[in-house]
Amino acid sequence: MRAPPLPNPGVHGRVCGDAPHTGVRRVAKGGCRMTNTEFATLRRSIEQLRHSVAGVRNAFGDAPEVRRLINDLERLEIDASELASAEPLRQPGLPGRIPEHVVIPDTPLDETMFSDADDEGLGGYHGDRS
């Protein structure tokens, strides 16, 4: 059985968080979705896998391992179709709110924050660190 083709989600919106390299976009409902390009890549990959599994089936026949591969491929198609129409996950406890990406800068931290801290593995460091 072949799963129906993935729907075109028609994604519009602004980039979700500060991760433009992921292609994830925020849609009007406040969630994050894959772009049309990512869905097209997913569909293309599943189609390539289908051709590969057909080659394995021609080589090995109806072996149990081949049947499992075919079942896995069908499950992958079903899951991809459901993913295309699924709503993004919501953060528990905060209805209607998607967790935001937190950017942590690479700038050095203030050394005074650690002036009274012990160094792990050295039995503690007591005294002036300067």
From TrEMBL:
Q: Region (Disordered) spans which residues?
A: 82-130
What highest taxon heads this organism's lineage? Bacteria
Q: What is this protein called?
A: Uncharacterized protein
